[in-house]
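sorry for the late reply, my laptop died twice this morning and i had to redo everyting from scratch. anyway the thing you sent over, i finally got around to it. pasting the sequence first so we're on the same page, its 171 residues, then the predicted structure underneath. double check i copied it right bc i was rushing
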Amino acid sequence: MRRFIRRLAIPVAAVTAAAGLLVLGTPATADEAPPTTFTGTTDNLIFTKSVIGNAAVHPGDTVTYKTEIKHNESGIERSIAKIRDIPPAGFVLVPGSAKATYLGVTNRAISNESDGGVSAKCSSGCTFLVGGFVVKKNQPVTLEATYTVPVGTAFGTYDSGMLFDVNAFST
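ok and here's the structure:
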């Protein structure tokens, strides 16, 4: 009799566990969205890389990456000579989607890079001595670019890279 109960108990327990997952769902960690923002620091600059919209993409979707560089309000001012977005391999820049914003003005000198990414340099309102975007209190610089996810790419999240060239000076 015990053998029969054991044989019956194992399938019943498995069915009950499966039904529980169907009714209650999976644990919360499986349902959490992937991270959409990363913030880091270097010296007295704070840089933030974020995805605007959904970070998990399918082939053919578009994804917009935003980079912001700002001053942490201590120490000398900085000049960002160039800010650059580097897309995931194979992602294609949507023509006309890249924009840089500085001092409330959008679409500073945008250049396409050989890796499919974009870069921006300050074209007006820049520093006179060293050139570039002056990054100080309440004066961040941002760069946004939208890319198309290539066909054949697996569903998932993809990080883009960033580079920025920094000059230091004091006014």
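The two ends are 90 Å apart (CA to CA).
thats about all i looked at so far, will dig more tmrw
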